[in-house]
Design a protein that fits this description.
Elements (H helix, E strand, L loop, with lengths): L4 H17 L11 H6 L22 H5 L3 H6 L1 E6 L2 E2 L3 E3 L6 E2 L1 H12 L3 E6 L5 H6 L5 E7 L2 H6 E16 L15 E5 L3 H14 L9 E5 L2 H9 L5 E5 H10 L4 E3 L5 E10 L5 H12 L2 H9 L18
Parallel strand pairs: 1-5, 1-6, 8-9, 8-10
Antiparallel strand pairs: 2-3, 3-4, 6-12, 7-10, 7-11, 7-12
């Protein structure tokens, strides 16, 4: 039976959306082999973990002591995150429970501070303005520290990540990380891929050598970008390696993640510049890093080798 082209795309993208939303309850997806491990992705299950990792975690007295009196009296702390980026930040299959490494870390931060956590699901490119306006207390959204961000945010390192490039399975155009000149590459609006890595790569590999620039296609989320990749409206997607690798394992024979990575970086929790909460949050993150819960959180999302030892204030990585 002949299937209409638009119907085929709809079927594929619907399956993709379901796969990206979450792995089936109780299911697993292994990180892809030796290349993933070599790039820091780690190994192990990426099952849908809907349990609250912070249950039983006691407040850290040193961190609690640093809390502003008003926050301590209020008893809650709010975190902004874009819940469209598995496996770091996304919704469980019930479409109600925020899960991933970032929600795990946010819950642990709140627990170490003896506070209740309120998770706000917002678009990535509105997070910084929301922090500046005081709508949210902090963000844990795999955000890299740039010079511009550090002008308006306090940023505290909490784990490592990398930026990679995905192409259709089998790489039909024979692309590599350094042969993207003139090609359409999807990036998430407001991400370091859009603001830093794609422009730098385009200048380094393309325009400085008289070749056409990489054509950035800015989209609201990585899901939108990968859907456009499936429908051949773009040639590649540049995004956090962890998210691209997740998509490749959740939707077999749909994507390839190119090697080497575009960049590796340390990512940071963000707060409004000179926030009175910064010292307490920094102490809470260090307390988490020093505890077994940090290893547990990294391990259950396949990030075993992406941990750090010190919750240092971030420095520019651009």
């Amino acid at each position: 039976m002949r299937v209409n082209r638009h119907l085929r795309v709809s079927i594929v993208t619907t399956a993709l959306a379901l796969a990206l939303a979450a792995c089936g309850a109780g299911g697993t997806a292994q990180n892809a082999g030796a290349q993933s491990t070599a790039q820091g992705g780690g190994s192990g299950s990426s099952a849908e973990h809907t349990d609250d990792i912070s249950v039983g975690v006691k407040p850290d007295a040193r961190a609690v002591k640093l809390l502003p009196a008003a926050v301590k009296a209020k008893g809650t702390i709010s975190v902004a995150m874009d819940l469209t980026s598995p496996p770091t930040t996304f919704m469980a299959s019930d479409n109600k429970t925020p899960i991933g490494f970032n929600p795990d870390m946010a819950r642990l931060i709140a627990a170490k501070l003896g506070l209740k956590l309120q998770i706000e699901n917002v678009k990535f490119d509105t997070i910084i303005t929301g922090l500046q306006a005081g709508r949210y207390d902090f963000t844990a959204s795999t955000m890299g520290a740039t010079t511009d961000r550090l002008k308006v945010l306090d940023m505290i390192n909490y784990f490592k990540a990398g930026t990679g490039v995905s192409v259709p399975y089998g790489n039909p155009q024979g692309l590599s990380t350094h042969t993207l000149c003139g090609h359409r590459v999807g990036v998430q609006s407001g991400s370091t891929a859009e603001l830093q890595w794609l422009p730098e790569l385009s200048k380094q590999d393309c325009t400085s050598k008289g070749k056409p620039a990489i054509k950035a296609v800015t989209l609201p989320s990585v899901n939108d970008a990968l859907t456009q990749l499936v429908s051949k409206r773009i040639d590649a997607v540049m995004y956090d390696f962890t998210g691209l690798q997740w998509a490749a394992t959740q939707q077999p024979k749909t994507f390839d993640v190119l090697q080497p990575l575009v960049a590796t970086k340390t990512v940071a929790v963000g707060l409004k510049k000179d926030s009175p909460l910064t010292p307490a949050v920094k102490a809470a993150i260090q307390s988490i890093i020093d505890s077994p819960k940090y290893t547990e959180a990294l391990g259950r999302w396949g990030f075993k080798t992406l941990g750090i030892r010190t919750a240092a204030m971030a420095t520019p990585q651009d």
